[in-house]
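batch_manifest entry 22 of 60
target: Transporter substrate-binding domain-containing protein
source organism: Microbacterium rhizosphaerae
requested by: lab member K.T.
priority: normal
notes from requester: please return tokens only, no post-processing; we will run our own comparison against the previous entry in this batch. if the run fails, retry once and flag.
--- input ---
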Amino acid sequence: MNQRVLGLAAVAAAALLLSACSSGASDSGASHPTAAAAKAPAGLMQAGTLSVCIDPEYAPLEYYKNGSSGDVVGFDADGARALATYWGVTPKFDVTSFDGLMPALNASRCDIVWSGLYQSEARKAIADSSAYMQAGPTVVAAPALAAKLKAKDDLCGLRVVTQSASANSDDVAALSKACEAGGKKPITQSNYPQTAQTVLALINGKADALVETNVGAAYIVSQNEGKLAVAKNVFPSETTFGVFTRKGDKLSEPVAAALKALYTDGTFAKIAAQYKLDPASLDVSQ
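--- output ---
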């Protein structure tokens, strides 16, 4: 699976304006206010402030509200705002390149990293993390077809588009071979280097279905309401997104406890619904 879904900003330029994600959230408050329920924990680098390293290039988890400027919005950004509100502190976003997120955390440039990072073994070796969402591949298609797709075998014989050099592409190629081995028609697969190109191939009728990461798929569908839909549960979720703190940091346990509280009180579900993410994908158990 891709570490990030690339090219989603280009999708916005090629499709409808994302009206569902037009919240007025700013650094000063959460989109879904939660009454302060816990004192600010020890360990914040600056008293009264929660600093968050984030790379706003991964809609709908984190992206600029105005495309390339303005407030950083998305599930992760609003989740961080909710966490700050829960502790009664002010959120402050430190925009950081994707490959610089973990180095910035361990250099104490921020308190936490909340930016669509998987809980990989490599990351868990150098930082603590608390789960908040399950991720995995999913299928996007025209609504009528999406409603019929219930299992991976339902893709046999279809024209499926994926992003080049992605794990999704490899999964579809392997599935095509399994289709043939099971006596079914193989998948006719096409690949494009950018996510925007895969979406356009689907919209223009060059493919029947697109296999994409579930969070990216939610954004793509929100850009094309009525034209595209997600076929749920075709593939299992296989990866967990986490909020990262420094290894052994005083914040690690309070972050985990706060995420569970915000999940339990429904705050995360409300934020997920705003960005058209399936609340069932939320997971704070790990």
